[in-house]
Amino acid sequence: CPVVLVPDRQASPPSAPVSISDVETVREGHQSEVLQSVAEEFPPERCFTIVFYGRRGNLDLVAGSAEEAQCWVQGLRQLIEPRSFSLTFALVSRTWIRDWFQKADKNKDGRMNFKEVQRLLKMMNVDMNEDHALRLFQDADKSESGTLEGEEFVLFYKALTQREEVLSLFQEFSEDGKKLTLLELVDFLREEQLENEGTEELAMELIDKYEPSETAQARHVLSADGFLMYLCSLEGSIFNPQHRALWQDMSQPLCHYFISSSHNTYLIEDQIRGHSSIEGYIRALKRGCRCLEVDCWDGPNGEPMVYHGHTFTSKIPFREVVSTLGKYAFKVRHTLPQVLVVVGGPWWVRIHGSGGALEGDWSCWPPAVQDPRGQGPWRHWVAQGASLSPTPQELKHKILLKGKKIGRLEDTLDGPGDEAPDVSDDDNGAEAEEERRRAKVRTQHGSALQKDKETLAQALSDCVIYCKNVPFRGFHEARSHSRPSEISSLSEAKARKLIRDEGNEFVRHNAWQLTRIYPSGMRTDSSNYSPQEMWNVGCQIVALNFQTAGMEMDLCDGLFSQNGSCGYVLKPPFMRDEETLFNPSDPSSREGPGPITLTIQVISGQQLPKVANSKEGAIIDPLVRVEIYGVPADQAHQETKYIENNGFNPRWDETLQFQIHVPELALIRFVVEDYDKTSRNDFVGQFTLAFANIKPGYRHIHLLSKDGTSIPPSSLFVHIRITE
Q1: How confident is residue 341, by pLDDT bands cut at 50, 70 and 90?
Q2: Which class does domain 593-723 fall in?
Q3: Are 546 and 553 in contact (CB under 8 A)?
Q4: Strand, helix or coil for residue 29
Q5: DSSP letters for 45-75
Q6: Residue 284: its pLDDT value, please?
Q7: Cis before 366? omega within 30
Q8: If we measure between CA atoms, which residue out of 158, 211, 160 comes closest to residue 181?
């Protein structure tokens, strides 16, 4: 067994067995702060890190040998790698059954008597009549031993999870009630799922993919079990599977895209005393974030450190951030450009020595810093040489630095001059004051040091090409003097005022220039503002605190879950026109067809999770709320009644209807809550997606936890209709 090192400070190591479904990935080598801190003691080939979904801390391990480490790493990866859906569906179901069996089997004898089954039902959110439960128990007890074991418990589970609403739908299209012929399946796909292209080929594919019986496959028919597996699959999901791939045009100028963006990326807690960690960058990048923030400050021996200035947050070396970017910034699905917001006067970012791929001696950054991918100096890795309005396609594998662009040497040495520094995201501009203080100190040093800083400043400035930071002095001033390669940063309060007073001008501005929005400095708890109102006027870089779960991050994940989760989403045509008349406060200003009607029948729920920290034996009373986010006229929400004491298979059969004026900007959020008549409802699960990604028909919604991770097999079953 490997040696367990000190865990991530955010959480304790698992004190009880954890399911393999809780494991997100396995990292080899010194890819955590803990393992980096003991790098001299343990070689990288013996080290690995198990990363869990959600907020559970990482588990850092050291094996006795490199061979043993590989056994662990390869074995875990085999267990967690994606498989075919039919196998995954069966595995999830089996794993779920086994986990519940082990929880309910109090005496650990591998059997379950009726009393233990009753306790299990409570644990599974089921409040069932005792006579009915006993009847299901006796039907499954084939050995008549008075206990359930092995396959008998599986039979009990299958009886418990019988989906009457799905069976009824199946029989509606099946002539004999036992199977769907190829033509009957085609009828269902066309009439209900609105699949009008290549329907016969699709029906054949679904039978081959989801029909568990080889005999039925050979006859080109679909059984009730195969029909259920299809409805629970990605093809049966509410999210259009074609939009999960990179499907949008990536040859438009950068300003024509919404870009997934993080604020103070290094923080994984609050803004005052929170922990700074490279995990913040890793988590954001794996979530599809394409705009990261790096706050650079002088550290010991001149080495720059990353932390939130003028606060008590912990610090991480700048070189570790750069190394992390080299490993994670351009994973396979994330080859599109990465925007790096470097906060801090660039001329004091000093790294001693010369050359080296993030090791050895450095003289300055970036000219002497090597590409972390080993492909030459970083200054050639940063975006250079294309047009002033480059496209994501042209800038693949490039890092774009957002920062101050030095026009004259005097500006570098004497202070800000006419250009505003790239201050940190504080409303009071604390970093601007710190920059002026440091500039004053710099002027007191000798000419040799001054010359070194001149070279350093100009070198970093030369890398700021497409995201030159400029102050915002109004839309008229910007249109007259600014260029597409420039960007302005606005606080959320400033942006709201502009939206309220000059909505159309804001949309036009964002059709040709980048705008970055950041949270108020008053949000010391790392809370978030709603990004929707900023997207409504076309703001591209809407920075959020990724470490804080909630509706705001649900919207962010919902918007950017499409297009291959690449972090770029193309804005609608009327927001890419510099002469557009669109104003989010007046939906009629949008060119195009009139409003559409979205009709959602909320049918049922499946195996909903218990509320965190609930009392033992407590069963939830679930309700479903559907929320619409978009332009002000489209903001709406409706909810179903609550179902008392049934989180296992609640039935609502309620219809909710919404009118949406600007569907191109609308996001739909499905929320399940545990009703409480005396206090605020408790969160159970949610799923958010852009309206453009909705598939009509009978669909399953696979719920996510509060922090956006999957919680299989929890889902909702709905029917969707969209009409003009």
Answers
A1: confident
A2: mainly beta
A3: yes
A4: coil
A5: GGEEEEEESTTPPPEEEE-SSHHHHHHHHHH
A6: 93
A7: yes
A8: 211
The CA–CA distances, whole Å, from 157 to 127, 249, 430 equal 15, 47, 60
Strands 682-690 and 3-4, how do they pair? unpaired
Place of tokens 């267990």: 79
Counting other chains too, the contacts that 319-323 makes at CB distance below 8 Å and 24 or more residues apart are 319/351, 319/358, 320/33, 320/36, 320/278, 321/266, 321/278, 321/281, 321/294, 322/358, 322/369, 322/372, 323/358, 323/372
Specify the pairing of strand 651-660 against strand 596-606: antiparallel
- Superfamily for domain range 254-443+455-575: Phosphatidylinositol (PI) phosphodiesterase (3.20.20.190)
Token duo for residue 233: 């699959």
Question: Distance (Å, rounded) from C-alpha 312 to C-alpha 309?
Answer: 8
The model carries a pTM of 0.83
The confidence score (pLDDT) of residue 91 equals 55
**Nearest 10 degrees: CA dihedral of 521, 300, 266, 281?**
150
Determine the residue type at 50. I
Angle between helices 164-173 and 182-191 (to 10 degrees): 110
Per mean pLDDT, which range of 156-160, 384-388, 566-570, 609-613 is the poorest? 384-388
Provide the 8-state DSSP code for 724: -
Q: What is the number of other CB atoms lying within 10 angstroms of the CB of residue 264?
A: 29
> Please, is 213 exposed, middle or buried when counting C-beta atoms within 10 Å of its C-beta (0-12, 13-18, 19+)?
middle
Separation CA 663–CA 649 (nearest Å): 32
C-alpha dihedral, 177 to 179 to 183 to 188, nearest 10°: 70
Looking at the annotation, which residues are catalytic?
A: 263, 308
CA separation for the pair 452, 455 (Å, rounded): 5
Residue with tokens 């082990």: 102
List, for residues 562-618, the tens digit of each pLDDT value. 999 999 999 999 999 999 999 999 999 998 888 999 999 999 999 898 887 777 778
Is CATH 1.10.238.10 the classification given to domain 164-236? yes
Domain ranges of the chain: 4-80, 85-161, 164-236, 254-443+455-575, 593-723
DSSP state of 573: G
SS3 category, 646: strand
Tokens in use for 642?
């609550």
- DSSP assignment, residue 701? E
Listed range (299-303, 389-393, 472-476, 659-663) with the worst mean pLDDT: 299-303
Report phi then psi at 512, rounded to 5: -135, -5
Judged against a pLDDT cut of 80, whether residue 332 lies above it is answered with no
What six digits make up the tokens of 476? 């008229």
Q: Tell me how far apart the alpha carbons of residues 133 and 648 are, in angstroms, rounded to a whole number.
A: 14
Residue found under tokens 């009509």: 696
CATH number assigned to the domain with residue range 4-80, chosen from the 4 options 1.20.1250.20, 2.30.110.20, 3.40.50.300, 2.30.29.30: 2.30.29.30
Instruction: Yes or no: say if 546 and 262 are a contact pair by the CB < 8 Å rule.
Output: yes
Tokens 């649900």 -> residue: 554
Q: Name the residue type at position 358.
A: L
* pLDDT exceeds cutoff 60 at 474: yes
DSSP class of residue 608?
P
Do 85-161 and 164-236 show the same overall fold?
yes
Assess contact for 342 and 306: CB atoms under 8 A. no
* Topology given in CATH for the domain delimited by 85-161: Recoverin; domain 1 (1.10.238)
